[in-house]
Amino acid sequence: MTAVIDFQTGLPVPERTTPRSDTLQSVTTALDVLDCFLTTPEVGVSEIARRLGIAKSSAHRLLTTLAARQVVEKNPDTGQYRLGVHLFALGHLAQSRMSLSSLALPEMQRMHGATGQSVFIGMLDGESAVYPHFVGNPAVSALLAQESVRRRAHATALGRAIAALDPAVERRLRVQAAATRGPLASKAVADFDHAIEGYRRSGVAASRDSVAPGLSGFAAPIRTLSGRPVGALVVAGPTASVVSGTDRISRLLPAAAARVSRLVGTG
């Protein structure tokens, strides 16, 4: 088989030897298709089939599926495929998250030293809360990273802080709270509304045992120059210690988030 050459380095690209499980074969193959674009800006169906050792019909189906989601697109002039706008958007989002974490790190470290609690950068991914960077206790981070937490942004201090500034997010997360199963739905909505009112009084949104038993937190939004919230600075930890430090956290957190916001505006 002819070696594939990386057009940037001039070196051969190693052949793939990793076995694929039947369950994840299609997903793995789709990712392999995307890896083909590491070595050239455009690739045709026949070339992808050759590189991956699959039938041309399979390569065509994969590319058609990826094109339907704008992960790749077909160049009408050459008939070959190139990376699409959706993948660019995802890459830009990932880069912005890493940049925000980098800008916020000094404030996160200061807040951790001043409160003794874990401090996070938090962002909304649709209606899920994600925490790409933290300083402090890994056990607290593990709780916030659980998939059950990702599906309940309305219960997080992060989601509530952003909802307080963004009416569209507020509407979505209130619907999410109302969809809570069983008799707890009305309480979930009441807690959500109460937290937003609390933010508008104090500049911080609170979550007490809402995400996980024994875990509480406070959040203050990080904003662009236009005032649009792009994330939040979150202080979280065991409920007893977080609640006992409420006054200090509530005093320090909005100012820290405002300093990060100024960096976002000039960065």
Automatic annotation (TrEMBL):
SUPFAM superfamilies: GAF domain-like, Winged helix' DNA-binding domain
The keyword Zinc appears for this protein: no
UniProt domain HTH iclR-type: residue ranges: 24-85
Domain IclR-ED: 86-266
GO term, biological process aspect, one: negative regulation of DNA-templated transcription
Membrane-crossing residue ranges in chain numbering: none
Protein name: Glycerol operon regulatory protein
Organism for this UniProt entry: Propioniciclava tarda
Biological classification of the source: Bacteria, Bacillati, Actinomycetota, Actinomycetes, Propionibacteriales
